[in-house]
Design a protein that fits this description.
single chain; 556 residues; alpha+beta; three-stranded mixed beta sheet; globular
Length: 556
């Protein structure tokens, strides 16, 4: 019996690797074209995210594991450029048909136009070669149907996430930065409601005017390239672009709630609470560190830690508190509330695309699919056990002390090619991220809540805990919309073109160049936003008609 079993096993193994007469290899019942010299030769176009990932330990381990899994050698020519340049050139390269065999991608639904024209590979045609990606698809709203185009195609391996802590936190625009040292000294505290926020601004302005606080302005924008009102849209239950508002798809900057927000911001500006340079000045970080500002409504995880590290005054302390609620609208919505478990996110914009003319699509699809395996993505997120991380008695992982206690832990991780650094994205970006890795090495920041008072916390955890379930914005749990490729492209064009116009004109309402209370001026602004594309109203009608409300039950 043992001899028979051994013979059968040997036969099965032999059939799995032997080449057929047609020049293909049969593996797991699938046909893989035979490779010259058993080598898969590819070009890969990707970005440099701040550190050179290609010569790191993790990149070398990625190639070793990938070659072992595929059973062939990889000969890859890497084409890289800085992230900002990469994004600026993506649409140009797609239009020119000048893409590599495999490409990092960050333009959302724009790819559908080129996929429909036959320039980008339809992944679904090679669904039989997928093993690990489907698990991330299954954790996403609507599953496979949720990521498919109406014709059943899908042109992107979307960026994956493992929310292993199952917290619906966010990483930006979910908390205000406050000068805690000033608040403590004068018996004040962060605002929990909009009314409290306006009152706090008045008190801080009075302290500045009386010379009791050495600062120039109460608040400013976190960076000149951001929409300043992004820090306030959640409080007023609106948004700064196209979004699902809980009942229908709408364009935030022309909603009544958005106008209400602009009226309130105009009051703050007229009262002298807002730095007049908020829309153009790029020196927010310097102003925060040298003490010229007291509140920053637009920031992300790590911002206040950076300001505290660079503080020019002894005793200066920046800290965070969740967005103020509104007396009418309730708990403020936060942007980017994460799904739990393994998923592809809710607003998919980034991933990997493949040239439709790639010579060996079966091998390429199989290779990218393997990046969604725990063998690959856990290694690139955590590193090597014993060298880069340890497993504690309770089963959780943490990076070794030489990384966590490094003067610059982010750079130390990047030098190894560990993705949690944010500065080095190894493998072929985008490999799925594990959120607990970011929390494992990230420094705690000062926080405040009405329940806990002042304490030390972490952005992604505390935006979930302090915001609560009501803080998850409808847009982060939006229903499926069955748009055609042309409609998806139009949606992207509308959002970007109208947002550019709205950013300029909405700021005029804040500064008083336009009066947000003037119905005629507001009507002219709305007409101007809509005029940026032809068929604005008709598109939103179509979008809402094609919305699958039944898909919302997947979130329950």
């Amino acid at each position: 019996m043992k001899k028979i079993l051994s013979l059968v096993l040997a036969l099965v193994m032999m059939l799995g690797v032997v080449a057929s007469a047609e020049g293909t290899m049969n593996k797991e019942g699938l046909n893989f074209p035979e490779l010259p010299n058993n080598t898969l030769t590819l070009t890969v176009s990707t970005a440099n995210f701040g550190s050179d990932a290609l010569n790191t330990k993790m990149q070398k381990l990625w190639q070793e594991k990938m070659e072992e899994y595929l059973g062939c050698k990889l000969d890859i020519t890497w084409q890289t450029m800085p992230w900002n340049d990469f994004r600026a050139n993506e649409s140009v390269m797609l239009e020119a048909g000048d893409i590599a065999d495999i490409n990092t991608y960050s333009q959302g639904t724009l790819v559908n136009e080129y996929g429909a024209d036959g320039d980008v590979l339809d992944i679904n045609k090679y669904a039989d070669y997928l093993v690990y990606y489907p698990e991330f698809v299954a954790g996403t709203l609507g599953g496979q149907e949720g990521i498919n185009n109406p014709d059943g195609s899908s042109y992107v391996f979307w960026d994956g996430y493992e929310n292993d802590l199952n917290l619906a936190g966010a990483q930006s625009f979910a908390a205000y930065g406050y000068r805690f040292d000033v608040l403590k000294e004068h018996g004040l505290q962060p605002a929990t409601t909009w009314g409290e926020f306006v009152d706090l601004c008045a008190k801080l302005k009075a302290l500045i005017d009386e010379g009791k606080v050495d600062a120039k302005y109460v608040m400013s924008n976190g960076a000149s390239w951001m929409n300043f009102y992004r820090g306030f849209v959640g409080t007023f239950h609106t948004w700064d672009t196209t979004y699902w508002n809980g009942e229908k798809w709408a364009y935030g900057p022309i909603e009544d709630n958005f106008r209400t927000m602009l009226i309130e911001l105009n009051k703050l500006y007229a009262a002298g609470y807002i730095d007049p340079e908020y829309a153009t000045d790029a020196s927010c970080d310097a102003k925060c560190s040298n003490g010229n500002l007291l509140i920053v409504p637009t920031n992300w995880a790590g911002s206040v830690a950076t300001w505290n590290t660079a503080a020019a005054k002894e005793g200066m302390e920046w800290g965070l508190a969740y967005l103020p609620a509104h007396e009418t609208f309730g708990t403020a919505w936060k942007w980017g509330s994460k799904l739990t478990g393994k998923n592809l996110g809710t607003t998919r914009t980034m991933g990997i695309i493949i040239d439709a003319d790639v010579e060996y699509p079966e091998w390429v699809v199989r290779m990218i699919d393997y990046q969604y395996s725990e063998d690959i993505y856990k290694m690139l997120n955590w590193g090597v056990e014993g060298e880069d991380f340890i497993t504690k008695e309770d089963g959780t992982r943490t990076y070794v002390d030489s990384l966590i206690k490094n003067d610059n832990p982010g750079q130390a991780l990047a030098d190894l090619g560990i993705m949690a650094s944010g500065g080095a994205r190894t493998g072929i970006p985008f490999v799925p991220q594990i959120f607990s890795t970011i929390l494992s090495y990230s420094a705690e920041e000062p926080w405040w809540s009405a329940e806990q008072g002042y304490y030390m916390g972490k952005y992604w955890i505390d935006t979930a805990v302090n915001g609560g379930p009501e803080s998850v914005s409808p847009y982060d749990r939006a229903p499926i919309v069955n748009l055609t490729e042309e409609e998806s492209t139009f949606k992207s064009t509308l959002s970007s073109a109208c947002e550019s116009y709205a950013k300029v004109e909405a700021n005029k309402f804040i500064t008083g160049e336009l009066d947000p209370n003037n119905d005629e001026q507001w009507a002219a602004y709305v007409a101007g936003v809509k005029s940026q594309v032809y068929g604005f109203d008709e598109f939103f009608e179509t979008m809402n008609e094609k919305t699958d409300l039944e898909s919302l039950k997947d979130y329950n």
